[in-house]
């Protein structure tokens, strides 16, 4: 929606099509935003030259920085139940270690790890409260 409104304000033709492409490419972590900006940049160059390219590039950078650093971690926290900082760290580490596949698997693996740590802590606290008979 933000891409559509931004492209409309900038006067880029085919804003709805370009925004739909951005929504589809959003399913691909890390490289999706880059791939979705290419058709918009080409359209901006064809219609308005270098000034339009810079404006569209700025629009895409602002939208995807806002999304990846604020919206995505908050949504994942609400749905998965892990801290936004853990999500960001997991994405960075996963992408660095294994590229796109690592970025895709980072959040589910970190959620599973956090659940495992929570279970271990729960067992530890349950074990402290029980009375054991030593022989």
Order of helices and strands: HHHHH
The tally of beta strands, per DSSP, is 0
> How many H/I helical runs?
5
Major sheet: size, sense and barrel closure? none
- Which class best fits the helix and strand makeup? mainly alpha
Helical fraction: over 70%
Whole-number radius of gyration? 22 Å
Q: What is the residue-averaged pLDDT?
A: 86
The unreliable regions are none
The total domain count is 2
Strand content: under 5%
Give the distance, in angstroms, between the N- and C-terminal Cα atoms: 69 Å
Shape: elongated
Write structural notes for this entry.
This protein is mainly alpha-helical. It has 2 domains: 1-79; 81-130. 84% of the residues lie in helices and 0% in strands. It is built from 5 helices and no strands. α2 (15-25) packs antiparallel against α3, α3 (32-48) runs antiparallel to α4 (50-80) and α4 packs parallel to α5. The model has no long low-confidence stretch (mean pLDDT 86).
Task: Describe the structure in brief.
The protein is 84% helix and 0% strand.
Can you lay out the helices and strands and say which pair or pack?
Layout: H1 2-10, H2 15-25, H3 32-48, H4 50-80, H5 84-129
